[in-house]
Write a structure and sequence with these properties.
Elements lengths: L2 H15 L4 H7 L6 H8 L7 H11 L14 E2 L5 E2 L5 H25 L13 E2 L2 H14 L10 H7 L3 E5 L5 E8 L3 E7 L4 H16 L1 E2 L5 H16 L2 H8 L8 H11 L3 H10 L5 H13 L1 H9 L10 H11 L5 H8 L11
Parallel strand pairs: 3-7, 4-6
Antiparallel strand pairs: 1-5, 2-5, 5-6
Helix pairs in contact: 1-5, 2-3, 5-15, 6-9, 8-9, 13-14, 15-16
């Protein structure tokens, strides 16, 4: 790839990340760079002068060197990933480019430290097409990873400890998450960092389900999504625990009992009710009644909003690696800021 092509590729990626049209980018440069010229730069047909390069970097809020950073990774993702219909094309393009950019920075710091995560856990001998198959996968994971049937305290840490990369990105609420593959089929879970802790835990496990389960080719995309939903619910709150708490059938729901499960297992109240319905512990009519009351009863709605899991779910591995490389003088403070996308690194020097 020559410099013109590389610059054009980086320019387009940065513009899409910032959700700008070519006209809007031109306006940000105060007309110093015209739309036709931006189009030529992105197409790799023309190379900007240093003055124009600086103007574009400033308008996009990108480091000057970003535009010549080699493209080092190839990313593939499913044709469909979890998103709401209201996610705009502009938002989707921004997410795709931000994921590519972060994946490159993630692998760059791994190479700097000489470490590389390998996720090689395999349950592909179970062909998943039903809830029973999902339960077999979950039981295998819990047994192999010595998780028991109790609450999972920090899911992101657990997955990263077993070789999975987890990336959190700034994204609109219409984006739930996705599982991508970097290079030679290395799975990376991508999460929306702004979600509530219960939703983040559920979404993390949903995407983990995509990466670990071998689902039947005969299933539709919707059926696969539903199985990954079931996988996340079973991982968070197993059928065995549900039967221990509620038995095989209930005709009345005590909300304080639901609340205790939520705060203990880190699963939302809505998801608990879905679990009860899926396992036929709760009837469809009682399940429906709960949602009607939740939408019409102000006291119930307020209680549901205030009841929450008190644990934390945040991916720290990436930032820890950057700080480690900085502490070992493998990278400069300027480079650390570039990789982290910040300019607020602070530390104590003992010299």
């Amino acid at each position: 790839m020559d410099y013109k092509e590389l610059f054009g590729r980086r320019l387009k990626s940065a513009r899409l990340m910032k959700k700008l049209t070519m006209d809007e980018l031109s306006q940000r440069t105060n007309g110093e760079v015209s739309k036709p010229n931006i189009s030529k730069y992105e197409a790799g047909k023309m190379m900007p002068s240093s003055k124009v390069h600086i103007a574009l970097a400033k308008a996009l809020g990108m480091d000057f060197d970003y535009f010549f950073r080699p493209v080092t990774v190839q990313i593939t993702r499913p044709a469909d990933y979890r998103k709401k219909a209201k996610l705009s094309k502009r938002d989707e393009d921004a997410i795709n480019e931000e994921v590519k950019d972060m994946a490159e920075r993630y692998l760059e710091i791994e190479d700097t430290l000489g470490v590389r995560m390998q996720f090689d856990y395999d349950v592909s001998d179970i062909n998943v097409s039903t809830h029973s198959d999902v339960k077999r996968v979950v039981a295998r994971i819990r047994e192999d990873w010595h998780l028991g049937i109790g609450p999972l305290s920090n899911i992101i840490d657990m997955l990263e400890a077993h070789g999975l990369r987890v990336m959190e990105i700034e994204a609109p609420d219409a984006f739930d998450g996705m599982c991508i593959f970097v290079g030679e089929k290395k799975p990376v879970l991508v999460l929306n960092k702004h979600y509530t802790v219960e939703r983040k835990r559920f979404n993390t496990l949903h995407e983990f389900g995509h990466s670990v389960m071998r689902m039947s080719d005969n299933l539709s995309q919707k059926e696969k999504e539903n199985l990954c939903h079931y996988f996340a619910g079973e991982m968070l709150l197993s059928t065995e625990v549900l039967h221990q708490v509620f038995g095989t059938r209930i005709n009345k729901v005590f909300l304080n009992e639901i609340g205790r499960l939520q705060t203990q297992f880190g699963i939302s109240i809505d998801a608990i009710f879905h679990r009860l319905k899926d396992e036929h512990i709760l009837s469809d009519s009682l399940h429906t009644q709960f949602y009607i009351k939740q939408n019409t009863n102000a006291r119930l709605k307020a209680w549901a909003k205030t009841s929450t899991y008190l644990g934390e779910e945040t991916s720290y591995r990436f930032s820890r690696m950057v700080y480690r490389a900085l502490a070992e003088n493998l990278i400069s403070e300027e480079k650390a800021n570039e990789i982290l996308g910040t300019n607020e690194i602070s530390y104590i020097d003992n010299r």
